[in-house]
Amino acid sequence: MSPRRQGCGLYFLLSPKNIQHPEVCAFLRDLLRHLRGPVVVIWDNGTIHGGEAIRALQARIPRLHLYRFPGYAPELNPDEGVWQLANRALANGRPDSQRQLFRHLRSHLSRLRRSPALLRGCVRGSDLPLF
């Protein structure tokens, strides 16, 4: 969310395997290519969000600011709203393959990405303080 223009964006990476530090770093580098100015990332305490590779990336890129949610705080995370919307959209589907599931999920997330009102609703639906 852009604090100045209050624009919302949804950036995501889907992977058929568990994501590790290299994928997180690649995602953050890609995100930084799309966004100008300081970038603040608030994320959970997942082990993939820490480690030497992440610290080294943050040290190299001073406009990247990384913060963690408290230990267990899904109510603060706007991503929970995104996943609730995705679950609702995909609830009655029965994909025949992982590829088909990813296609449906990517399609839904892309539609959500184009809906600033729904994205703002995910932020407002969380207990995050509005800035």
List the helices and strands and how they pair.
Blueprint: H1 21-34, E1 39-43, H2 52-60, E2 64-68, H3 79-90, H4 98-113, H5 116-125
Parallel strand pairs: 1-2
Name the CATH class: Alpha Beta
Secondary-structure element order, N to C: HEHEHHH
Report the end-to-end length measured between terminal Cα atoms. Answer: 10 Å
Could you tell me the mean pLDDT? Answer: 87
| Rg from Cα | 16 Å
Which descriptors would you attach to this protein?
about 130 residues; mainly alpha; Nucleotidyltransferase, domain 5; two-stranded parallel ribbon; 5 helices; about 45% helix; about 10% strand
What does this structure look like?
It is a single chain. This protein has a single domain (21-125), classed as Nucleotidyltransferase, domain 5, CATH 3.30.420. The chain is built from five helices and two strands, in the order αβαβααα. The chain has helices at 21-34, 52-60, 79-90, 98-113, 116-125; strands at 39-43, 64-68. A two-stranded parallel sheet has the order 1-2. α3 (79-90) packs across α4 (98-113). The N and C termini lie close together (10 Å). The mean pLDDT is 87.
